[in-house]
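Aim 2, interim progress: modelling of the pyridoxal-5'-phosphate-bound target.
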Amino acid sequence: MPDDLPPNSPKGQHPNTGAHFATRMSHGGRAGTRVHGFVNPPVHRGSTVLYPSCAERGSINARSLEQVMTYGTAGGPTHFALENMIAEIEGGSRALIVGTGLAACTLPLMAYLNAGDHSLVPDSVYGPTRRISDGMLKRMGVETTYYDPQIDAAGLQALMRPNTKVVYAESPGSHTFEMQDIPALADVAHAQGAKLIMDNTWGIHHFQPFTKGVDVSVQALTKYVGGHSDVLLGSITVNTPEDWAIIAGAAREVGHYASPDDCWLALRGLRTLAVRLKAQEAAGLAVARWLDGRPEVLRVMHPAMGSHPQHALWKRDFTGACSLFGVVFDPRYTVRQIDAFVDGLSLFGIGASWGGYESLALPTTNYITRTATRLDVLEGPTVRFHIGLEDTADLVADLEAGLDALPR
Ligand SMILES: *Cc1c(COP(=O)(O)O)cnc(C)c1O
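Predicted structure of the complex, ligand included:
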């Protein structure tokens, strides 16, 4: 490692020695005493990297899979500090930072799938991931079958084809929050040599993908890692040198890159991630339970609540929850009435994304696509809630006033 690379703790030791999550988020990826004594690594911006001789420039090519600085697109110290932190959060060996969460979802699909291949994607997948499967991947000769996110091993086995190279998973599913039996899916995929790629954005560190059979784990760092609704980034984490070569090679072919300024913001977000997540997990559950007790609400879709149909899977595989969940309102209300309720809230913003410090409410009825399963989720109008860092009592009062104003 070149000397100007920030070490991962003030004393220059990698902190992954059994310390708790909050401690590791505080001590990882720091500059220590190397940068004039400043705690944090600086933002290293750059395209050209200079070498003292042609021979040294030439010798670097053989080390392209290492964290060496060859050119801006290959990353610099700010990228590498964040990559190391994300790899550690997910329990993988290497992580790659890309410009958006969506880029993190799409790059592994492009990397592992060839013309004539087949992939299996859950019907509850993040919408834009469905878009590339039906768009660019299809155009390039890759066929996608959407499957019921609640499928069991036998069901997935029945959908596997000789050319199935990727099983994609996302647990819980976008907008509808179905939990998936990841270890069971992994067994089926691996029996045939297929890769299991998982979108772990909801899980963050509460789901450890590589102990559950996942080969490639992607996250939108835009969400809780950024944490302040001011940065877009994605991560792709793997746990073998072979997978790293495939992912890093594909990123280089396509030209993926993330701004070091954004990596710096994500590193800053990581310092408070543990405390934010803990507070937001508790607040999210409190608001979800309160909503569950209201007569206007048919059901709440929160995997950490006992009423969730796959709560047992969450309990088995996750160590916690984030503060994103869905609500199905009573079918006696129209989408227009629920839209008016959301419009009337004063503390909940209306908008995409989540994981920031501010609460959001997003009507989702028209965002849910199903091609393999029935739209059972739509007994009534649906709203996705993200609970931020406001006082829970204020959020509940805001919701209460809105619900009380709905027709009886
Ligand atoms: C937001 C999100 C993404 C994409 O992240 P962007 O940074 O907005 O591109 C991917 N997967 C899931 C589950 C998401 O919620």
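The chain has 14 helices and eleven strands. Residues 100-102, 105, 126, 174, 199, 201, 220, 222, 232, 234, 353 surround pyridoxal-5'-phosphate (CB under 6 Å).
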